[in-house]
Design brief:
Blueprint: E1 7-12, H1 17-20, H2 29-39, E2 42-50, E3 53-65, E4 68-73, E5 84-87, H3 93-106, E6 112-116, H4 122-126, E7 134-145, H5 150-156, H6 159-170, E8 174-177, H7 182-198, H8 207-217, E9 223-229, E10 235-244, E11 247-249, E12 252-255, H9 264-278, E13 283-285, H10 291-294, E14 299-309, H11 312-329
Parallel strand pairs: 4-6, 11-13
Antiparallel strand pairs: 1-2, 2-3, 3-4, 3-5, 6-14, 7-13, 7-14, 8-9, 9-10, 10-11, 10-12
Helix pairs in contact: 2-8, 6-9, 7-8
Organism: Candidatus Ryanbacteria bacterium CG10_big_fil_rev_8_21_14_0_10_43_42
Domain BioF2-like acetyltransferase: 159-292
Family: Belongs to the FemABX family.
């Protein structure tokens, strides 16, 4: 019979070189710095040791809310995508989950953990329910295969999307790659305010968040910023598209509702797709759900976003807090 190898955890300062090429954008040091700067969070990298060797890592950040220490990987509101684990084939997700959860609760002093990991399915997560209470929701998005030819990508789009691409050209809109400066931050946030104003609400993050993203990622050439102008050189839409490790992401975009008849959004997404395709990206992740995103012809991706609490009342309070937050926003829930 084979040996049952014990997994031990150790908090470390960085991921070793052998694992770096497998990190998601949101597990990289620069993104952890972005979370730290915008959330006041403490980055946490946990090495999982098996038989004296590193078998993987767990990456997240710790915050305190209402006196409760939380390990988010990520946590809603951080405008951050897939985090969780980076594992070798030598370790199973279930064993890694048990090890990290025990370590977070008993060594780091956390009372609650949230994880969204694209490579771990629900049944693997729920193996831990024998020991700790947990719940989940599904984070849905769409991914487009950029290795396909432009003609095929266009052909997979909804007919209205293709028509709008042509209409935008006739309407005289122009798209420009924006410099990474404060003027873009201002334009983007002004556009965002216009979108939320139409919904009788306010943006869920401020200008400082956008500036922090640009300041942190911009110098590493991981970021594409786009401005869309009408014929009168009014900036009618803006978009932010980071990329890493063969995947480009739609982080955020906003168009002034009064100018949407000019059809700027399809052109903005198409430009970003073609830009990152020529820069070696293989996938375009649309950064969340929405019926309009489905029409770009991508594949549906559904990932469990799991909550694990040390005690049942903590899980109950977390669920109640989310419901209260949604009601205060007075808009349909938008995944961060």
């Amino acid at each position: 019979m084979g040996r049952c190898l014990m997994i031990t955890c150790e908090r470390v300062s960085e991921v070793n070189e052998a694992f770096r090429e497998y990190l998601t954008l949101f597990q990289t040091p620069v993104w952890l710095k972005f979370i730290k700067n915008t959330q006041g969070a403490d980055p946490v990298i946990i090495a999982l040791m098996q038989d004296g060797c590193i078998a993987g890592y767990f990456i997240g950040c710790m915050v305190k809310k209402f006196g409760i220490r939380i390990l988010g990987s990520p946590f809603p509101g951080w405008t951050t995508g897939y985090m969780g684990f980076c594992l070798s084939n030598a370790i199973s997700p279930e064993k890694a989950l048990f090890a990290v959860t025990d370590y977070a609760f008993h060594k780091l002093g956390c009372m609650h953990i949230e994880i969204m990991d694209k490579d771990i399915n629900l049944s693997q997560f729920y193996a831990i329910s024998k020991k700790y209470p947990l719940s989940h929701r599904i984070f849905g998005t769409f991914e487009i295969d950029l290795t396909q030819s432009p003609d095929i990508l266009l052909g997979k789009m909804n007919q209205n999307r293709r028509r709008n691409l042509k209409a935008a050209k006739k309407n005289g809109i122009t798209i420009e790659e924006a410099p990474m400066d404060t003027s873009f931050v201002r334009d983007y946030h002004d556009n965002l305010i216009a979108v939320f104003k139409k919904q009788h609400s306010t943006p869920t993050y401020d200008e400082k968040r956008v500036k922090a993203l640009i300041d942190t990622l911009g110098s590493f050439e991981l970021l594409l910023l786009l401005r869309i102008y009408n014929r009168d050189r009014v900036c009618i839409a803006t978009g932010i598209f980071p990329a890493w490790n063969s995947i480009a992401y739609f982080w955020g975009g906003a168009s002034i509702p009064a100018y949407n008849y000019l059809r700027p959004n399809e052109s903005m997404h198409w430009y970003a797709m073609m830009y990152w395709k020529t820069h070696g990206m293989r996938i375009y992740n649309m950064g969340g759900g929405g019926e309009y995103k489905k029409k770009y012809g991508g594949t549906t991706i559904e990932t469990p976003w799991v909550r694990i609490s040390r005690y049942k009342p903590i899980l109950f309070l977390r669920t109640y807090a989310e419901k209260l937050h949604k009601s205060l926003l007075k808009i349909p829930y938008i995944a961060a």
